[in-house]
Amino acid sequence: FDLTLCRWEQLPDMSCQRDYFSVVCLDGKVFALGGNRDDSRNLDAVEYYSPEENTWRSAHPLATAVCGHAAAVLDGQIYISGGCDSHRHCLPSMWNYHPSRGCFPRSDMTAGAGRAGHVMLALGSRLVVAGGLQPLWMGFGDQLLCELYDPTRDSWSSFPALPRPHVSPGATVLDGRLYVVGGFSANTATDSKWVHCYDPKEERWEKLGAMPHPYTDLKACSLPLPDLHDLH
């Protein structure tokens, strides 16, 4: 979508059909990592889109086939957390991924036995993991606990818990604050319309209100709006 022209442009299709995958941008390229194909097979495949070449190319596969994971870029490095493996087990894993060398394991997440359907975003010099679901003795349940990862120390620390469930929500960082939007609750099997914001200065989550309708499996991003007066 071109914000200046207010119109959509169709790009080439990915070479591999996938859902419940993660996307990050690094060095001017868009990386699609893992996911699920036809609701029957998890993927370890990674591909990236190059705007200059207007095409998709394959990168090094992940260490395991996974879907429902989260990925983020911090200090020029791609990190991948959690997700479900081919046996529908939630993973506590954390990886540092390199497009040509693959995955390098880091310390596992510490809140619960695993996490999927969550978000992970860079906040300052660390990564915040929030929302998603966790494995229970039978099935899955909401995960309200959040975690903070320090890549320098390869360590996890606690982070204020979410006040409401957000499984497969949209999330973005704007002006140093973390926003989590929509998703659903695994406990009640209902979609969510709630919007929550974490302010590092206040060290707490704030409910900002609700969207007009509940939405799940959505994505969010922050973009600078063009100054339309400069275009005339």
Strand and helix map with partners:
Layout: E1 22-26, E2 29-37, E3 41-50, E4 55-59, E5 70-74, E6 77-81, E7 94-98, E8 102-106, E9 119-123, E10 126-130, E11 133-135, E12 140-142, E13 146-150, E14 155-159, E15 170-174, E16 177-181, E17 184-185, E18 190-191, E19 194-199, E20 204-210
Antiparallel strand pairs: 1-2, 2-3, 3-4, 5-6, 6-7, 7-8, 9-10, 10-13, 11-12, 13-14, 15-16, 16-19, 17-18, 19-20
Please supply descriptive tags for the structure shown above.
0% helix; 232 residues; four-stranded antiparallel β-sheet; Neuraminidase; mainly beta
Give an overview in words.
Keywords: Kelch repeat. It holds the Pfam family Kelch_KLHDC2_KLHL20_DRC7. It comes from Stegastes partitus. InterPro entries: Kelch-typ_b-propeller, Kelch_1. This is Kelch-like protein 33. With 232 residues, this protein is mainly β. It has one domain (22-221): Kelch-type beta propeller (Neuraminidase, 6 Propeller). Helix content is 0%, strand content 44%. The protein contains no helices and 20 strands. It has strands spanning 22-26, 29-37, 41-50, 55-59, 70-74, 77-81, 94-98, 102-106, 119-123, 126-130, 133-135, 140-142, 146-150, 155-159, 170-174, 177-181, 184-185, 190-191, 194-199, 204-210. The strands form six sheets. Strands 1-2-3-4 form a four-stranded antiparallel β-sheet, with no helix packed on it. A hairpin with a 3-residue loop joins strand 2 and strand 3. The radius of gyration is 18 Å and the shape is globular. The mean pLDDT is 95.
